[in-house]
Amino acid sequence: MHFTKEDLERIIHWATYRTARSLGIIGDDEEFCPEDAVEIIFQLKGHKDALVELADAYQAWYGFHLDIYKAGKSGNLSNDERVTLDRLIFRREEAKRALLAITPV
Fold first, then answer.
1. pTM of the model
2. In this model, does residue 105 exceed pLDDT 90?
3. What is the rounded distance in angstroms from the CA atom of residue 73 to the CA atom of residue 91?
4. How many whole angstroms separate alpha carbon 45 and alpha carbon 33?
5. Fewer CB within 10 Å, N- or C-terminus of the chain?
């Protein structure tokens, strides 16, 4: 499997960082978010919802891939599994688009 749990964590960190920059919680020249960045973001409903949806969508997509990988079915999905994968990819991409739309940097 090419996408790892660490990759998943990096994407969620990137989304948090981008949101924090967009909201002015951190400046453009800062590399890291403060420990309370998520708390601050979660006070803003639209941003909280978008960030949570992105994390949930990526985790669902990753979990599906992990299950397929563990079952030895990579590259050999049933029709139902392909439909599920397409739905998860669509959700993941929509979540990313929604977050990008509200976090201009």
1. 0.87
2. no
3. 22
4. 19
5. C
